[in-house]
Amino acid sequence: MDDTPELIRHLLDPACYDHPAGPVRLIETHISWVLLTGEIAYKLKKPLDLGFLDFSSLAKRLDACREEVRLNRRLAPDIYLGVVPITGTPHAPRVNGGGEAFEYAVKMRQFPVDATLDRLDAAGTLDAAQIEAIAATVARFHENDCARAPADSAWGSPDTLWQPVAQNFVQIAPRLDADADRERLAVLERWSTAEHARLAPLMTARKRAGWVRECHGDLHLGNLAWVDGRPLVFDCIEFNPALRWIDVQSEIAFCYMDLLQRGHSQWAWLFLNVWLEYTGDFSGLALLRYYAVYRALVRAKVAVLRAGQLDGAARRDAFDEVRTLLDLALSLTQAAPACLDITHGLSGSGKTTVTHRLMQTPGAIRVRSDVERKRLAGLDALAKSGSGVGAGLYAGDATRRTYTHLAACAGALLDAGWPVIVDATFLARWQRELLDETARSHGVPFRILDFPADLATLRARIVERARAGGDASEANLEVLQHQLDSQEILTAEEQALCVNAGEIRRHEG
Fold first, then answer.
1. Distance, CA of 109 to CA of 95 (rounded, Å)
2. What is the tens place of the pLDDT at every residue in 284-337?
3. In the chain, what percentage of residues exceed pLDDT 90?
4. Checking CA distances to 509, which of 52, 241, 295, 468 falls within 20 to 30 Å?
5. pLDDT per position as a tens digit, 440-498
6. Which fold has domain 340-508?
7. Contacts of 8 (CB under 8 A, 6+ apart)
8. Could you give the angle at the alpha carbon of 401 between the alpha carbons of 398 and 405, nearest 5°?
9. Full 3-state SS string of 232-278
10. Range(s) for CATH 3.90.1200.10 in the chain?
11. Fold type of domain 117-332
12. 421 contacts 338 by C-beta, under 8 angstroms
């Protein structure tokens, strides 16, 4: 505590607060102090000017506190309570007291420090359901609560996006102490430079299309929590607008990368697929690897800066983390082997259940007809369209539009180097031929995942699914009968491309 400012030392006294406070605990970061009083936490900005942030004056700290509350109330309105003055003197401060303020703090409802996802992961209690819920929360935030960048702003332009990417290389390179690490970094710099040039037209087009938004900016597991049985996303970047006015793909790339770094590739795929199912941003995946490499290098920069402040074993550990992150970044530059799988089976045959596992292990991007059909009609995935059998969203022209869209999504994903699973019934031969041609035109392997099931099982599953709700499918028993009457059986050539779903289930365990 010797180097802790006088104000912070005296704020450890529970008598400073205008509410009952237990023993006060201090958490310090490189840019703030957080005082935990029991029910309420207070966050104070350090009086720093680091170039990328400037808290050097009281007015600037007040503005930053107000921005922090504004930004985080989009995601956590029950947590971020407001900005409060600190009055009195550093020797005898009063939080939210009378008189002239000499400092300000963000007032927050306190939640358990062990509730963050990084700590849950370290404790071995993080689970897939929490990952799905976080992905859905982030997707809804991106869709509903993030302002779009103005067309005449610099946010999201290729030049603006390149600046923090380039800065990583400038700041990391002189601090590396091994030739092998410097060579890894040089390879990543050449790749990033080439990728940026290749993707610049897409970056420009995405800004025009509204995908550059005022995001969270720092979406890793340490800023995600599980509180009272639901997701909590907190600690948006308030100090540098360039780091939050970004493409949404850059936002999700941080969480995707973080899960990969922690050895959870299946959850990285799960997070990505759930977010995509809500947003439909399949075309943006061409940018994801570029941004994931950038995010890995941001973390490598933090680790190498920390290494420079340490000695002995702690320094070696920090450099080991740098090397791990450089290796992860290098692996992210390599696309997974692209392939195209489609499902084949009647409603209730288990297609979505099995592909939910396959999209995590071995990993793929799943595109669901039940979701995309409604998206094309401007409906939420769980909305009821009220369409009859062969009518409305399920009329012939609507069905052809849906499958054409599925093929286009699959083609764009294959172009971007992603393995793809298209989850639909594919009961008509022309539907299967359409996706077979998509695979052929992209030169990738094509498989049909076949889902045979007896009629009693199909009927029972459809009835149970309708009773439970919560699924995008609108199939009922009348739809099942229509499918049975109109399906076109697989040809001999198609059967040669089939993998039986029962074998997939046994293999996946």
1. 15
2. 999 999 999 999 999 999 999 999 889 999 999 999 999 999 999 999 999 889
3. 89
4. 468
5. 999 999 999 999 999 999 999 999 988 888 888 988 999 999 999 999 999 999 999 99
6. Rossmann fold (3.40.50)
7. 26, 33, 35, 44
8. 140
9. EECCCCCCCHHHCEEEHHHHHHHHHHHHHHCCCHHHHHHHHHHHHHH
10. 117-332
11. Aminoglycoside 3'-phosphotransferase; Chain: A, domain 2 (3.90.1200)
12. no
Question: Mean pLDDT of all residues in the chain?
Answer: 95
Q: Give the pLDDT of residue 492.
A: 97
The number of residues making up the chain comes to 509
β partners of residue 227: 230
Q: Distance (Å, rounded) from C-alpha 420 to C-alpha 413?
A: 7
- The one-letter amino acid code at 155 reads W
Counts for the chain of helices (H) and strands (E), in that order: 18, 15
What pLDDT shows up at residue 509? 44
Burial zone of 336 (CB within 10 Å; 0-12 exposed, 13-18 middle, 19+ buried): exposed
Residue whose tokens read 């971007």: 416
CATH 3.40.50.300 domain span(s) along the chain = 340-508
Whether the Cβ atoms of residue 61 and residue 86 lie closer than 8 Å to each other: no
